[in-house]
């Protein structure tokens, strides 16, 4: 089948939307729990129907986190205030029952923590990135800095309105150093007003034990030593449907596979496809993939995490000019715009390949906030539901990513990236202290 016919078929293909529907019908896809296991079975079935060969499910150990109840209350006797607020424990929060002073640390930067009495206190930190940052400031960095400052607990305040407590792991595949919860923007407004005078009571019932997450892996194209790795994570947080993060990404992935399967005879290089588990709890599935891979044989990694959410497609190319050129060229060939950002980051499934020198592109589609930073919006909240997704966007992004992967698998020359350059870029961006505080700065590159 020629390219135009393959793209025409993709434009009418409803299989990606049907997969998104099946995934979002599950109660929970949190890593290590039954819903994630069922999601892997559903994706494996879709892969086989799409024409992938040797589709297998591979289990990977994960520190399984289980949510119980969360109670948050504030007391201010001098103002006759004694209030309960809704809150959601953040994955890998340990259980706790504590009382402490409440302090507001803004976005939770080291400078802001130095300006408050964080030692022994419960620290408020907002989601989002400070306006003077030129990179995304991750939650795990914030809690790492708060713990290093001696905080007894961490409260993550959403910047998106709608009574939506945010979630998100506090550590990578391990229990966090301090308990943490998410609260809504509206609750955060009250807590910031009370901070500095109030005592907060925080009761978290949660536990961590040993579990298994799952990768679903298959391949198409010729049987070559070299390969392009195409992946997307199938797990999601347990408080919502996980439609945008990352159900849309898995739907886009399936659309790419279904298009490439009709063009298989034109590929010069094998395309290995993986739907990974445990991304939200610390890139667990992709770390196992990377540990088992011969990195010299992986031409490039294409990570679909965030694509399919919004119309504006973005390629995060992590310092690879060659990948940026291929991505731009593929989109220009069909006169479609593409936003490109080359700043490396460690917060998705490309990371364990990238830090070993494998060129990696993450396809994303978040909207910028008022400061110009890319922000999560509905994701990591209970509002991450299928009604926010659009079949047209999923189809369009699947077609575009398919063009990129096809070009990568038909002879595109992609030089290796230098791990020292990745490390230096992270140091220059200011990411190293937060990653080190969170325990995820690599000992070896």
Care to describe what's here?
- Helix 3 packs parallel to helix 7.
- It contains 13 helices and 14 strands.
- Strands 1, 2, 3, 4, 5, 6, 7, 8, 9, 10, 11, 12, 13 and 14 form a 14-stranded mixed beta sheet that branches.
- With 445 residues, the chain is α/β, with parallel strands linked by helices.
- Helix 9 links the parallel strand 12 and strand 13.
- The model has no long low-confidence stretch (mean pLDDT 95).
- The chain is globular and about 75 Å long.
- It has two domains: 279 residues, Zn peptidases (Aminopeptidase); 143 residues, Glucose Oxidase, domain 1 (3-Layer(bba) Sandwich).
- The longest helix has 20 residues.
Low-confidence stretches: none
- CATH class call of the largest domain: Alpha Beta
Report the total helices.
13
* Envelope shape: globular
How far apart lie the N and C ends? 43 Å
Give the topology string: H per helix, E per strand: HHHEEEEHEHEEHEEHEHEEHEHEHHH
Coarse structural class: alpha/beta
CATH superfamily (homologous) name of the largest domain: Zn peptidases
Helix content: 25-40%
CATH fold topology of the largest domain: Aminopeptidase
Total E-strand runs:
14
Radius of gyration: 22 Å
Average pLDDT over all residues: 95
């Amino acid at each position: 089948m020629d390219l135009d016919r393959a793209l025409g078929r993709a434009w009418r293909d409803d299989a990606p939307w049907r997969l998104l529907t099946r995934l979002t019908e599950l109660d929970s896809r949190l890593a290590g729990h039954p819903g994630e296991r069922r999601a892997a079975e559903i994706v494996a079935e879709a892969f086989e129907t799409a024409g992938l060969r040797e589709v297998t499910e591979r289990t990977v150990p994960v520190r399984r986190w289980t949510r119980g109840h969360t109670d948050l209350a504030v007391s201010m006797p001098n103002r006759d205030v004694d209030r309960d607020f809704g809150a959601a424990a953040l994955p890998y929060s340990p259980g706790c029952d504590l009382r402490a002073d409440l302090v507001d640390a803004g976005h939770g930067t080291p400078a802001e923590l130095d300006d408050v009495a964080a030692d022994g206190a419960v620290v408020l930190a907002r989601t989002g990135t400070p306006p003077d940052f030129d990179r995304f400031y991750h939650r795990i960095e914030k809690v790492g800095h708060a713990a290093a400052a001696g905080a007894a607990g961490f409260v993550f305040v959403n910047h998106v309105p709608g009574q939506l407590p945010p979630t998100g792991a506090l550590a990578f595949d391990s229990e966090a150093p301090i308990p943490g919860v998410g609260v809504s923007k509206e609750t955060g407004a009250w807590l910031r007003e009370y901070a500095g005078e109030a005592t907060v009571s925080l009761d978290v019932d949660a536990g961590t034990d040993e579990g298994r997450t799952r990768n679903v892996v298959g391949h198409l194209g010729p049987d070559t030593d070299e390969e392009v790795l195409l992946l997307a994570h199938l797990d999601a947080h347990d408080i919502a449907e996980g439609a945008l993060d990352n159900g849309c990404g898995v739907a886009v992935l399936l659309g790419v596979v279904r298009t490439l399967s009709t063009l298989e005879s034109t590929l010069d290089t094998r395309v290995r496809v993986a739907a990974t588990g445990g991304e939200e709890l610390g890139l667990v599935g992709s770390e196992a993939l990377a540990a088992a891979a011969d990195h010299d044989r992986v031409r490039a990694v294409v990570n679909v995490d965030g694509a399919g959410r919004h119309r504006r497609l973005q390629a995060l190319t992590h310092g690879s000019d060659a990948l940026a050129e291929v991505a731009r060229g593929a989109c220009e060939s069909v006169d479609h715009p593409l936003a490109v950002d080359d700043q490396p980051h460690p917060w998705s499934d490309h990371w364990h390949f990238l830090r070993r020198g494998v060129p990696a592109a993450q396809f994303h589609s978040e909207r910028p906030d008022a400061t110009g930073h890319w922000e999560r919006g509905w994701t990591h909240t209970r509002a991450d539901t299928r009604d926010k997704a659009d079949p047209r966007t999923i189809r369009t992004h699947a077609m575009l990513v398919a063009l990129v992967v096809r070009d990568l698998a038909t002879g595109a020359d992609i030089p290796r990236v230098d791990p020292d350059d990745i490390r230096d870029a992270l140091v220059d961006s200011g990411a190293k202290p937060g990653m080190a505080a969170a325990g995820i700065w690599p000992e070896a590159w």
